[in-house]
Every structure is written in C-alpha cells, then in structure tokens.
Amino acid sequence: MEIEAAVRTRLLCKHFNVVCQFSGNNVKFLEFSAEAFFKVFNVVCHKMDNYFKRRERMVTKTEALYNALLPMKVVSFDDIVAKASSIVKAAPNRRYIYRRYVDRLIENGKLQRIRKRLYLVSPPLESPERHIADKLLIASKIRDEYYLGFHTALEYYGCASSFYNEAYICVKTRNRFDPFQYKRFSFKPVFVKDVTFEVEEKEYQGSKMRVSGKERTFIECIDRIQYAGGWEECVKSLEGLGGIDMEKLLKLLHRYGKDTLFRRVGYILELLKERSPFYEHVDDELLNKLEGQITGPPRYLIHGEKGLLHRRWRLYIPKDFVEKLRGI
C-alpha cells in the first residue's frame, strides 16, 4: 500500500509540475507528503481561478464597450474614450484603451477603420464585407465644428434629384482636412466663414448631426452651384425642398449682401413658383423686394456663357437653359 501511495504521489507531482509551468510558476519539488502537496495545489488553483476571473472581466468590458458603441454605428476615437470611461470606471488612458479594447475589436471584425480616429461599428449578425456604411453618419463624425451643406443637405432633406457618392462637409479653413475616400464614398471639405448661423442639429440614425437650415441650403446651392450638382440638378432638387420661410430667406440674402445672389434667387424663385406647389406662396411683394436690391449692369447666370437678357433680373440666361428644365 505504501508503494502504491508513493507511485500515486509521484504521478500527481508530475501533473502538478505541468500546471505550475502553465501558470508561470517554476515550482519544483521532489518528495513531500500528500498533505503538503494538496496545500500547495490549492494555492495554485486559487491563483489560476483569479487569473481566469481577470480574463473574464476583461472580455466582459470589451463586449460592454462594443454594445455601448453599437447604436452609434459610426464613432470617433473620442466617442470610444467617452464610452470606455464609464465602463472602465477609472480615468481612461487613451493609449491603454486603444491597445486593450480598440485593437481587439478591430481584430474581431467588430470595428472597421474608416480613417485615422474614425471607425464603423459592424452589426453582430452581418459580416464586415457586406455591411453598407451610411455616408451622412461618416460625414458627421469628421470634425466637431462643421455642418453638412449643399447637395449633401439636399439629400438629408430627401429632395435631391440624384444620390451622389460625394459628401460635402462645411468647415472653417482652420478645421480643414484632406479629402478622402471610404469604399465608394468621397468626403470633401467646403470652406465657409461661419458654421453656426442657420445651422440645425438633427437626430439621425441614433446620432446627432449638424445640417444647414433649408433657407441657407437654398441660398448656398444657388451661390456655389458646383456643390449642388450644376443648375439642372440644383433646380430639380430645389423643387422638392418644401417649408422655406421666405422672410428668413430675404434676411439671409441681406446678410450675404451679394448683388448676384439677389438676381439668381429672384429668377429661380420665379421659375419654381410656376413648377412646384412648395413655392406657391412666393408672392409679387417678395419678388419686388428682391428686384429692388439689384444694382449695376447685367450679369451672367452662368459665368462667361452668353444668352438672352432677362430684363427683370438683369441676367443673361443661356438659350437652352429653360429647355433643359422642361423635363423636370
């Protein structure tokens, strides 16, 4: 019996050495009593139990962070740090959060890098390759001080005649960024002097985004037509932009103070009044106020392109301009 007990003890020692090596302990022992062995074995098991509990807590925090980010769909690194601070329950170290959590979520396919410090959150039941990104959500996360304007604003309001792969993010020059592309979408900055007046904060897909108000969108599309898709796309889209406050529109025009804008806006409003029910409330009083702001010689509707003179608005309108719009 003593011989059998000794054999069993040596066998346990052999297995215990393997366990000790796995847990990082270089414990070596040759002969000891069965009672001493089990005491040491209990200590090792306790340490291993703590180790696995720590691992479990870490995984739980990673999953908790992912679940917190999931409704946002597109997140900046600042968003991740803000969410992680409540989960970690400590002053977050940005480098630690990136290495411990962001790297792991990217490796698991739960985050996709759009560009530096900007990520797409992948839904749990959809492969990253098949997930379709939302252009407006991505555009709203590039800068803190911004608004979505021009054709991108028309798309938000649901009146754009065509869906473009470009997104226009209006920023001041100090907040410039290099244009970039993610999958089929292109993101381009448009420089403006002010990013606050007539800019509205909207709820969209569980996030907040800043979009130019309808009146500012109308004026800026006509002012910088290249960002509205050209005249045909612009007029066709503006036809469906309902709910414009004409008094507010007039005040904004005075704020811009551009003679050419009074001409262009007056001419386009006159066209839209005949074409769209959204502009039936455009009255002669408003048009007369716009006409009264015109000074100086006639100008071109399209720079350098000759046409017939519209006497009321003192604009040279290309001969085929109205013809192109008849299909609208």
CATH C-level name of the largest domain: Alpha Beta
How many helices does DSSP assign? 12
Summarize the main sheet: 4 strands, mixed
Count of discrete structural domains: 2
- In the CATH classification, which architecture of the largest domain applies? 2-Layer Sandwich
The secondary structure category is: alpha+beta
Strand content: 15-25%
Strand order of the largest sheet: 4-5-7-6
> Element order, helices and strands?
HHEHHEEHEHEEEEEHHHHHEEEH
The CATH topology assignment of the largest domain is Beta Polymerase, domain 2
Low-confidence blocks of residues:
22-32
Summarize the amount of helix as a percent range: 40-55%
Termini separation comes to 102 Å
Mean pLDDT: 85
What is the 3D shape?
elongated
Radius of gyration based on Cα positions: 33 Å
General description of the model:
The chain is 47% helix and 15% strand. The protein has 328 residues and is an alpha+beta fold. It folds into two domains: 2-121, Winged helix-like DNA-binding domain superfamily/Winged helix DNA-binding domain (Arc Repressor Mutant, subunit A), CATH 1.10.10; 135-292, Beta Polymerase, domain 2, CATH 3.30.460. A four-stranded mixed beta sheet has the order 4-5-7-6. The protein has a three-stranded antiparallel beta sheet with strand order 1-3-2. A three-stranded mixed beta sheet has the order 10-12-11, with helices on one face. Helix 1 (2-22) runs parallel beside helix 2, helix 2 crosses helix 3 (77-88) and helix 7 crosses helix 9. The longest helix is centred in the N-terminal third of the chain and has 36 residues, at 34-69. The radius of gyration is 33 Å and the shape is elongated.
